[in-house]
Amino acid sequence: MIDPLHQFQIQRLIPISFGGWDISYTNSALWMTIGLIIVCLFFYISLKKEELVPNRLQASAEVVFGFLSDMVKSYIGREGMQFFPFIFTLFWFVLMGNLLGLFPYSFTYTSHIVVTFSLAIVAFIAANVVGFKKHGLGMFYLFLPKGIPVFLAPLMIVIELISYLARPFSLSIRLFANMMAGHLILKLFASFSMMLWQSKSLLAVLGILPLMLNIGVTGLEFLVAVLQTYVFTLLTCLYINDAINLH
User: Fold this and answer.
1) What pLDDT is recorded for position 2?
2) Where are the domains of the chain?
3) 23-27, 116-120, 150-154, 199-203 — which is least confidently predicted?
4) Rg over CA atoms, the chain
């Protein structure tokens, strides 16, 4: 039986220690680097020779750029375009982590809670900094919805505060859990196929069944990878919108 959790193991590729801190270059960092190179090459090649009538690569780059730009304008407003570089970078970082991990011998860095929580807490802190910078202490009106009766205000403030503080946890766990669960299923089905094929009996023929399921799950995982990237980016936009517009 193949260990389905082995694929999530962090491995040191270049051991580095500084001031007692382990800052080794790992397989996770390697695939982050690969994702960065792929995105940079994609946009460099796509936009190196901009044409009035774009080719397929240029059109693809412009579609993604326009999609994210429209998302920011729709959910934050034109004022939110100052956050576009952050949203753009966040989108591609998560997308590369989700998609690259579906290829053999790769590593899904978004399947680690430390990565997804780091992204979520950065977005959460950034939204709060922007909110307090714009509204000052008026930022606390976010925890008291309009039209709430006075006698319900204390209860609503507590509920809204807990809900607000839970945002980085829900945002990070959603992405981490989806990526980890999907890869576990793929590895388990692959293990079942190998076990049946190596059984040296008539059961070996049944090994095709989990293999077919694996093909279907792989297609589903590609869809989940894109969908979870969209959800993560969209919720980040909504959290920034709440901080700016207090709703």
Assistant:
1) 65
2) 6-245
3) 199-203
4) 22
Instruction: Give the whole-angstrom CA distance, residue 102 versus residue 229.
Output: 14
18, 212 contact by CB (below 8 A): no
What type of residue is 194?
A: M
Task: Please state whether the predicted TM-score (pTM) of the whole model is above 0.90.
Answer: no
Amino acid at 23: I
How far apart are the C-alpha atoms of 49 and 79, rounded to whole Å? 31
Checking 54-58 for CB contacts under 8 A at 24+ apart, the result is: none
Question: If phi over 0 gives left and psi between -120 and 50 gives alpha, with beta otherwise, what is residue 51?
Answer: beta
Non-local (6+) Cβ contacts of 38 within 8 A are 96, 100
Which residue, 97, 86, 75, is CA-closest to 172? 97
Q: Which helix (H) or strand (E) holds 125?
A: helix 113-135
- Please state, for a pLDDT cut of 90, what percent of the chain lies above it: 40
Question: What's the token pair of residue 179?
Answer: 């990526």
Q: What CA–CA distance (Å, rounded) separates 28 from 118?
A: 14
